[in-house]
Amino acid sequence: MCRCELACFFFRCFFFFASLPTLHNFSRCHQEGREGCTTRRVRTTTQAHTSPGVQYRPMERMEKPIMVIGTSAPRRREIAQRHFGAAYDLVYLSPAIDEKQIRDSDPFALTSAIAQAKMEELRAKVARDTALAHRIAHRPGSVAVTFDQVVNYHGEIREKPESQEQAVAFIKSYSNDNLATVMTTVLYHFGTGKQASMPNTTLTFYGEISDETVAHVVERGTCLHTAGGFVVEDADMKRCEVKIDPGTEEEVCGFCENSVRALLADVQRS
């Protein structure tokens, strides 16, 4: 390497090392400037969210509509809770009417008339309960539901047995035979004032029902409060059951989910 090239090399090295503090300071200032901008942005954002006069509230929980169910039957209540408890606040009221005052030889007409009468009484009860009426008025989509069901045994309409003896006779007659249920569901929409009804039928088939089975069913007493003395969910009756066709056990118990959903869709149409 010649003297000229060597001198040039040392000059470049000197210049490089002499400039290092300046580069370091520039880098530090540049970094501080970025952090300062970030800090200013954060401070500005924070101030925007905490400006006086501006209130931020958490989203209020939407209250569910109310479904007033006109029944005192525990099984119906259980089924209603299973299918509609998530979407509605369920309120149970018993529409106490004298069903014996309503007569008709047609099971469809009979159950429709009784279910309609129950709805009238149920709505009157709601109107008398000012607290409940107020809640319903402030819950859009609130509805009321009533039901009536009879057993149709080969053309004979059977309602609740009037004595243990009649309950025994009813249950014995179902041995190696079948029986139908006829039910009407009525639904009223408090907001629109619309009311609609829908019938439903089931057919249950039994094998032999022994006298011992009949005695156990009657002893438990539930059969005295059901149409035709018919308790499809009773453990002893279940052992004698062959099939339910058409229908489901829930429908035999007096609550038809499909009917309620169809009626809800009907009354909610504009």
Walk me through the structure.
With 270 residues, the chain is α/β, with parallel strands linked by helices. The chain has a single domain, classed as Alpha-Beta Complex (Maf protein), CATH 3.90.950. Helices cover 48% and strands 19% of the residues. The chain has 9 helices and 7 strands; from the N terminus they run αβαβααββαββααβαα. It has helices at 3-49, 74-84, 107-128, 130-137, 164-173, 211-220, 235-240, 249-252, 257-268; strands spanning 66-70, 89-93, 143-153, 156-158, 178-189, 195-206, 241-244. Strands 1, 2, 3, 4, 5, 6 and 7 form a 7-stranded mixed beta sheet that branches. A hairpin with a 5-residue loop joins strand 5 and strand 6. Helix 5 (164-173) packs across helix 6. It comes from Leishmania panamensis.
Note the main attributes of this structure:
270 residues, alpha/beta, 48% helix, Maf-like, Maf-like protein, nucleoside triphosphate diphosphatase activity, signal, hydrolase
Summarize the entry for a quick read.
InterPro entries: ITPase-like_fam (IPR029001), Maf-like (IPR003697). One of its GO terms (molecular function) is nucleoside triphosphate diphosphatase activity. This protein has 270 residues and is α/β, with parallel strands linked by helices.
